[in-house]
Amino acid sequence: MLGTTLNRKKHRRVSYVIRASDEGRHRSGINSIALSRRGDLLFSAGRDATTRCWNTANPKAVCERTYDGHTDWVNDVVVMSDEATLVTASSDTTIKFWNIANETCTATLKEHGDYVRALAYAKNAQFLASAGLDRDVYIWDTVALQKPVAQMPDSQFRRCEGHKDSVYCIATNNDGKLVVSGSTERVSTHAIGLIRLWDPRTGERTGRLKGHTDNIRCILLSEDGTKCISGSSDATIKIWDIGQQRCIQSIAIHTDSVWSIALDPQNLNLFSGGRDCNIFCTDLRTLDSTLLHKSSDPVTKLLLSPARSLWVSTVSADLQFLDVDPPLARERASRSTRSKPSVHSITTVGPRRSIGSSGVGQDVPDENLVPLLPTPTYVIKGLPAIIKHDFLENRRCVLTEDTAGDVALWDVTKAQKIQEFGKVDFQQTRKSLEKELLVPAWCSVDCKLGSLTVNLDFPQVFSAELYANDAGFPHTPELEETKMNVGFRILRSLLKRWLQGRRGRPQDRSSALRMQEEDGASHPEIDESLDYTISDKIKVIVSEDSGTKPLICRRVFEWDGSEPVDILPEWLVQSLERDGPHNDKGERVGDSPKVGFYLTAHPDCDIRQMQQGKLNAPQILRGKKVLHYALTKLQLETQVPAKLRRSEVRDAIDYLELVCNERVVPLDMNLMTIRKFIAKNPDELILQYRWKENMDKGDHNMVKGFA
């Protein structure tokens, strides 16, 4: 079982992803696309960790299904020959098989040790090839879905055998008699980038192709297995003869890295795109290259439809459709009648450009080329990705800015957006929301997926013990003295269904009772009203190695208690079952640290002096509590000066104020905030109490809004 094979000592993290409730489109760039046989379903692999299915027969190209189980970028996608199974490869190091109709994951392959970058499918041979940054190439039996039937040798085992560096692309043909893969490995002192040839039946190397001077980024294999086409970061496209194992043609039309190529074998048209945003079509018979379209973003994938139109994905969240066949045919038909060169095309015969030390061509093609299609035929719009974020001082709210320039505020304890500011200056908005408040950083966030991901790591997750009305709950008298641990309450809210399901099982119920006995007493019933309300659709992830290797990924409503305890962090299990923050040994943690301070009478005030020396109190203790201590200790209720007394003021503490560094302290400000923002010397916190000088000036002590 999975739990018996995992190393329990590795660091494990709990994360959850916050997405808008109306998302039905990609939130970030799209790395790859695939089509069904008829071309009516388009599958897109996104950097938002989702794969989406689009009905292209619908003029609006609506998203019909979403395959959401990866925890990092989805880098490639393949449709199996049965048209019922989808395969995805991800930077979370896994390959997943999906039932297309019901959106469920049917198998997860975890053999790769690093990002899985590319897939290739041989439908007649029924195998799938995968490649990644771990330098490995695998051949998978798509029927058995067991261990790989062949693993390409690694240089650690046999010298000069197998890729020595990351593999970015892989290809095969339908018969599957040959696999080709492109890597970043060095081939000479001044050049990197190597293509290796493999026999998928044995995993043996059958050759290698050298000629590029930079990383191999995309690759194709002809159906008869005699030709190979590759695109590279050296900005060139090369055509190779497999039998001779040499380059027979080099095409230099791009000004930057070539990321994708697509071939129309019937018309011998080669489509190419990449970082320079240009999409070219090269006639392989004449080597005339036509600038089809200039995208607004670098091109990640080109895909030819059965009708010979072109689907385009880019580093943005949009999908573009180019109806290239009619205009391309007109352009080529008119060449023979022109007396002047076309404004859309150039002729490439052999290498046209020199490659500098950076790997980018220095002699660029004609910059005056006019795109044949100035705009896409239509676009499936995506959503803007979050690219900037900053926590507010309350450590609950996060200010974000997306690629459209819109600024918004999110509450991570509610896992939702709470305010939109529109297109405003991010830094100015952040400054306007600034508060004098200090809350320990109980979580971290990132926006790698285009949305906010909240990461919970031990012991940091239990570092924020607060009063409930400072943690997002209403400012009511009954909550004013109620303490809670924010991170623990978030974990309870995310995994409440897991805990309920586990406690409903007899063997797990007895385990919980045993834990209570070990603690010395039965736990009082926990106040569930202090759990946060989080949508059941939020995705919860448990991973190893700071999030790089997922162990389990489920939505809140999918957790049911049947999940193996061994895949969860031990500190998480102990905390949930013992109803409070605990470490992996079952020891209580998370209590608020103490702050040392001196409490004295203000020198300019005629008031009793505190005789006690240095005091210690929890860092979340509020200024009002400090004054209460002085009031009670010195019995100041009867000492209020007559000139200050007011009939409407019934509480003696309202005649007092707390001072630090000659500044009146708001009474709902806690000790750690006072030490950071008001005290001159945070190592020696000195607080002074005094009578208010003038009651008519209003009550300085009732300042609110610090939560």
Automatic annotation (TrEMBL):
The record's PROSITE patterns line, in alphabetical order, gives:
WD_REPEATS_1, WD_REPEATS_2, WD_REPEATS_REGION
Q: Tell me, which GO biological process terms does this entry list?
A: double-strand break repair via homologous recombination
Q: Which GO terms describe its molecular function?
A: ubiquitin binding
Source organism superkingdom: Eukaryota
> Which residues are the signal sequence here?
none
Instruction: Tell me which Pfam families the record gives.
Output: DUF3337 (PF11816), WD40 (PF00400)
Query: From start to end residue, where is composition biased (Basic and acidic residues)?
Result: 515-526
**Which residue ranges have biased composition labelled Polar residues?**
339-348
Q: Which residues form a coiled coil?
A: none
Which parts of this chain are annotated as the region Disordered?
A: 330-362, 502-526
For this protein, the parts annotated as crossing the membrane are none
**Entry protein name:** WD repeat-containing protein 48 homolog
